[in-house]
Amino acid sequence: MTLDKQARDILHMNDKGGYTLPTHGLYPYQWNWDSAFAAWGFTTFDPDRGWTELETLMSGQWDDGMLPHILFHRSDPSYFPGPDVWKGRGPIASSGISQPPVAATFMAKMLAMDPSGEPRARAMWPKLNAWHRWFMEWRLDDGAVCVTHPWEAGRDNAPDWDGAMKAINADDVGEYTRRDTGHVDPAMRPTKYDYDRYLKLVQLGVSVDWDQAKLREINPFRVADPTMTFTLLRAQRDMLAMGQRFSEDVAEIEGWITTLEQGAQTLWNPDIDGYDSRDVNAGSFNGVLSNASALCWYAGIKDDRALPAIERMVNAVTYSLASFDPDAEGFEPLRYWRGPTWPIMNYLVGSGMEEQGVDALGARIRDDTARLMELNGFAEYYHPIDGTPAGGGTFTWTAAVWLGWAGDNREDQRGAA
Ligand code: DGY
């Protein structure tokens, strides 16, 4: 069976009717950024299903504009923490935090691939704009976008959060049973120390009914993050272009782009020659070079200063791009966001490089991504040195990256984007 067919089969297999699971077992709900990748993947062969995916995602939007990171359409006890723990207050049972805002950028790509979807894109544009406004209102620090929970960045256990996590007292978090380690080898997942703190932050959010003003006062965790800053900056550029096409008022978005461009520069850490995360409460950089550091090109920032360190990271492994600097202390090649290579990040980084003329590095990352899938199937993430598939298998967004970018039809897709 061709890899194209396998990838399409994975999308069908994880399709729950209107929304797609990241993978069965480990993640039995609709995840925000996973879903945006799924929408794009479907659009390569079934645009109508692609648009529906985004519409279902938007249907979970809260009154204040927030778009949750998980929508719990149907309760499933095989996942923890579920709807009864999160107690989200949107139209669909949900978590109380958001995730990297890549949906608008995928919507722009889908529109290029399927112009007949324009009415559906027009209907979603104001909702996406409201979501982005929510970030601008509640998550900025000096123009950079912050996360208030490690899960908000999508890079759950990245070393970026280690310092800020130490400031969280989780002694009273109570008893709970994890489900993730029943699906996947615990050595590939976050530790109990991490989970205690993840839950403590959820409990704090619930204690104020996810009121952002109140949460701002009591949440000890606030980290300005390259993932959020660069994805939102890119999303705003795509919203600007689509807004002009749809005759929307885009003056506010132009201002946001300036703010975010300035904010991105507050993440430049000369000590690591790269874009870093900043612990807002501690007032210091975290000193972490990661795959998110390489998202500047995706954000439309052509920054040659960032090249040498990222080039070193690429050349340090067989299958780039590792999620954490392979030369750094604490690099763990199989543990989730502390080392493994993630195809979805490779796509964001690599396609951004291609757009900005960083051709050789972008092509290397794309080829490495393709080789991983050719050799080891569509896993959640992979060992960057020997390619071992890790985390969940038959993964939706990995399949989408094959269909839209890394796979055999990539020339067509690049032409369309
Ligand atoms: C998980 O459950 O590991 C998810 O990444 C949280 O979003």
What does this entry look like structurally?
The chain is mainly alpha-helical. The chain has 17 helices and eleven strands. The strands form four sheets. The chain has a five-stranded antiparallel β-sheet. Helix 2 crosses helix 16 (396-406) and helix 5 packs antiparallel against helix 6 (118-138).
Gap between N and C termini: 27 Å
**Strand arrangement across the biggest beta sheet:** 3-4-5-8-9
Written as H for each helix and E for each strand, in order along the chain, the element string is HEHHEHHHEEHHHHEHHEEEEHHHEEHH
Pick out the low-confidence regions.
411-417
Count of alpha/pi helices = 17
Q: How many extended strands? A: 11
- Fraction of residues in H or I helices: 40-55%
| Beta strand % | 5-15%
Mean pLDDT: 96
Distinct ligand kinds: (2R)-2,3-dihydroxypropanoic acid
Largest sheet: 5 strands, antiparallel
Give the tags:
417 residues, mainly alpha, 5-stranded antiparallel beta sheet, 17 helices, globular, disordered C terminus, binds (2R)-2,3-dihydroxypropanoic acid
